[in-house]
Design a protein that fits this description.
mainly alpha, single chain, 127 residues
Amino acid sequence: MVAYALWAIGAELATRSLAPEIVAFITYSTGAILLAGYLLVRPEPVEVPTVGSALGFAMATGAIMGVGTLTYYHGLQFGDTTAVTTIAALYFVLAAILDIVVLGNNLGTTDALGLALAAIAVTFISL
């Protein structure tokens, strides 16, 4: 959570003088280098898929993440960081709804109440 908070502040500061696309590219390139280093030193072997639906889902997810990243960085450049990060934090509510609709998982009463309260809280914070 701390890393995500620092990421948001750093991204907002960087987009003050650089285009959002450049900041996103630098940010994710740096993160990819860090991740590659981690994969090289971890004790478990790395299994890289070459075909199959897992590879397709991973690539599609990367494309979707790219779109989300660009919109997030544009929001930081032109909007208020508090509002942008708070609205972006609503992703988990949409993810939970998609989990039910697309994957067919169940949502309990307390889960539904928690998601509703979180959405209300995020809405108030972003005002």
